[in-house]
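Study this:
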Amino acid sequence: MKPALLPCATTICAALLAACAPVAHKDSARTAAPSTAPAAVAVEDPFLWLEDIQGAKPLQWVDAQNARTAAAFADTPEFEAARNSILGILDSEARIPYINKIGAHYYNFWKDKAHPRGIWRRTSLAEYGKAQPRWETVLDLDALGKAEGKSWVWSGAQCLRPANQRCLLSLSPGGGDAVVVREFDLHDKAFVKGGFELPEAKTQVAWIDADHLFVATDFGPGSMTKSSYARIVKDWQRGTPLSAATTVYEGKDEDMVVSAERDLTKGFERDFVTRTIDFYTSETFLRGKDGKLTRIEVPLDASIDTHRQWLTVRLRDAWTVAGKTWPSGALLATRFDDFMAGKRDFVLLFAPDDSSSLASFSWTRHHLILNLLKDVASQQEVLTPSERGEWKRAPLGGVPSLSTANAGGIDADTDDSYFLNVGGFLEPDTLSMGTLGRGQPRVLKRGPAFFDASGLAVQQFFVKSKDGTRVPYFQIGAKDLKLDGTHPTLLYGYGGFEISQRPRYNGVVGSQWLARGGVYVVANIRGGGEYGPRWHQAALKANRLRAYEDFAAIAEDLVSRGVTTGPRLGAMGGSNGGLLMGNMLTLYPEHFGAIVCTVPLLDMKRYTHLSAGASWIAEYGDPDKPEEWNWIKTFSPYQNLARGKDYPPILFYTATSDDRVGPVQARKMAARMEEFGYPHVWFYENREGGHGGAADNRQQAYMNALAYGFLWQELTAPVP
């Protein structure tokens, strides 16, 4: 198990940028205090004072910038109309209420106009299948926040199987990664008086049994890694103070994070401890009843998963073991007990080729579902193991071309039921439910259409990058699009952390861009996971510029094909995609007419000393090592800014409460550009929202309206 600590904004990526999803579990701690800059850096960086996140002077600067940006783009009837339209989409009662099964009920966390911070609610499967299900509210976050005087943001629940009565709820004050953990009773629909409770921190917690937890949190000075995550995991017994918890494992200061969990599957209960060394390497140990740790001997850069008697190993690099070499990107399986006894008899469940990769996999009780990508379009396979160790293979089927489908088991403890969610750029999602081996799944819910897609088409193109690599991208625009170079075009990209950019429906993009006649383009550049580990590794560290060359090649192709021109082409990206945007600004300014850069990394000289930046050294490199700074500086936008360039207009958007990347890099970039005399630099910092940039739908609607309004204004302005 590896924690999801990507510098990738969930709200930004899913809603504003229509891209990555995935950062689900928020397992992190208090906002790291800005470190003191070395003397040499202090001389060359006059904006270190903006790194004081909550300082009075920096916040005065933020307020002035926000007022200036709002006056330019938000104080108009057009902006209000756009914001209200977007809010209507985000609050729509017609959206699919996605569910997960906990015990006998199906739970959903829901935000709308009446519940801006959201309600946690449940229903039965029979009721859920109705057009208007009856829901039972379990927890009202708005009411809780009002009663407690807190700005709570939901961060998830972990419930103790198999009873599923007690849960650990994670609530973030303001939407950052640091959370408060509190025990909750599903029967009473109330917090447990005197129950488990942990103060605000970047915490990872897991049930051992009804009276014990694995806790990795801030235990005081020296207990956190340089990445600002937990270095120590302990066993905490109910009714005792946290200070009395027993240490299970201690990592190193240089590690990223440590954690522990118990597999609660009846008959296969096992305890695991994971030391995450960096973003792509880790050690997982089996913990015996005596507390002894036995390392699971797989490559450090491989990830493992267990299901009952099975162990699966997912490889990032080729692995030679027992005289056989398994390829990079492969998924292997063996019996867990046999492996721990020294046997190395694997079955190859998946091996990538030049056009395919494994996106994810999920167990039902008796089957393993593989979610695959073939040139970035979805395919599914179902694998069934026998007691003899043989695996049968069959397609799941039923997925349209150029679409995204995700299939996943619902309750792997009990049955072979699964959910299948299918959608595309122009097709709203459809949620179906089936049981493997029992025919086709039945449709449960269909998402609403938020824009008229009848005159639009999706096309996939491939372009050769600077080094000759074939790079795909999706183009969404009018079916009869005239290739006359006149179309406002928005190019989105991410390009990092093995995150794939897949076809997905986004009502905000459709209503605010496509419906107005714009063309929307999604880039599948290197650094992502579209073609498995090799695609990601091709843009790691010293090879980072390959991702930016890919994005620039797509921009050039859109112009050469006659879709748009430089002044009509905009770019957008957040987090790691914000670093991409910073490099488009500094390395390829002539390609773009406007750029939106959200919750970004930009100062790659200082990033390891800011918030959780040290956790991403495996992706970018260590700027404190001179030999690595020599190539990091080639893609550090803050250092590469120069006077007298023809930079396009740019909007920076960030959040004060972002304790993952932090707001200070966007602050400093905007301040330096203004110091250099660039007039078309705009900055907005939301107070809440964490790395997602928004704590509720109203804030998210404002963010979207600001971004798309800015882009449309700049890209449709008369060209001199």
